[in-house]
Design a protein that fits this description.
This protein has about 270 residues and is mainly alpha-helical. The chain has helices spanning about 1-10, 15-30, 35-50, 55-60, 60-65, 70-80, 85-95, 100, 110-130, 130-135, 140-160, 160-165, 175-185, 190-210, 220-255. The longest helix is centred in the C-terminal third of the chain and has 36 residues, at about 220-255. The protein is globular, with a radius of gyration of 20 Å. The model is unreliable at about 1-10 and about 260-265 (pLDDT under 50).
């Protein structure tokens, strides 16, 4: 029965999964509004500071770019975007079971905490650490190329770590980084598609609202930033859900249950 269900999943159209991803995101926002609101409120708080700094009147001036309030809230917002990696992953994995999704249970919460610390450290270094080119002592132009290569390499590696990112919030400690690479091998293109489909549409709206607000009347800026905060809240969900779809597909090809309930590497 497991093999037949996995074959059925393997043959499912990709767009059907993406449609389900956005439907699950909307359902999660309604079922667990407090959890959904965490990144929304932090994003809006950052916008409040940006409005106070005059960013939408004059654009991103140096004073606004390096304002400590904006930087701290920006980092807090980035951390909040990681939280659905626990809640929403579980919500999708267990068919919209809101009670189980929000439950802080072991070992899942402990394993996710380790991942969260790892990702938080990486994000801190990306935001506040020295550029790669500076660390390597490269010239400015070579430094820009090095940064681009590093960003692409990190994106590729993250795809191969997707099974690890998904398995631990589900309490499956048997899938670590190295096994994740083995699971994701052969499924890179489909996993990349899910990530693109789950993030790019909302990212486009997010940036359109941000740049589109510059020079607008202040009352309109407030409305646009409120909408943008909601967009970012959904982006946090679809980003985490896209990883779940990619990992589930890759694991399904190899008869592996992501929650560890029926591990079978055959």
């Amino acid at each position: 029965m497991l093999a037949s269900s996995l074959r059925a999943f393997y043959s499912r159209p990709m767009w059907r999964d993406v449609k389900q991803l956005y439907a699950d995101s909307a359902a999660f926002a309604l079922a667990l509004p407090v959890l959904f609101s965490i990144p929304v409120l932090l994003e809006f708080a950052q916008h409040v500071v940006e409005i106070d700094l005059g960013l939408y009147r004059h654009g991103l001036a140096a004073a606004a770019a390096f304002d400590q309030r904006r930087l701290i809230l920006g980092f807090a917002k980035v951390l909040s975007l990681l939280l659905p990696g626990y809640w929403f992953t579980r919500y999708m994995a267990w068919n919209r079971d809101a009670n189980r999704a929000k439950r802080i249970e072991r070992p899942a919460a402990t394993l996710f905490g380790i991942q969260f610390a790892f990702k938080a450290g990486w994000q801190w270094f990306a935001l506040f650490g020295p550029p790669l080119g500076v660390m390597l002592g490269l010239a400015p132009r070579a430094s820009s190329y090095a940064g681009l290569v590093a960003m692409i390499a990190a994106s590729v590696v993250s795809i191969y770590l997707t099974a690890w990112f998904v398995a631990w919030p589900l309490g499956n400690a048997r899938i670590g980084p190295f096994r994740s690479v083995a699971i994701m091998a052969g499924s890179f293109a489909r996993a990349f598609f899910y990530v693109a489909a789950g993030t790019l549409p909302l990212m486009i709206v997010h940036y359109a609202l941000g740049y589109g607000a510059i020079g607008r009347p202040e009352w309109l800026v407030w409305i646009m930033m409120a909408v943008d905060a909601l967009v970012v809240g959904f982006l946090a969900l679809t980003g985490a859900g896209a990883l779940f779809l990619g990992a589930r597909y890759a694991a399904g090809r190899k008869n592996i249950a992501m929650d560890g309930a029926a591990l079978n590497a055959g």
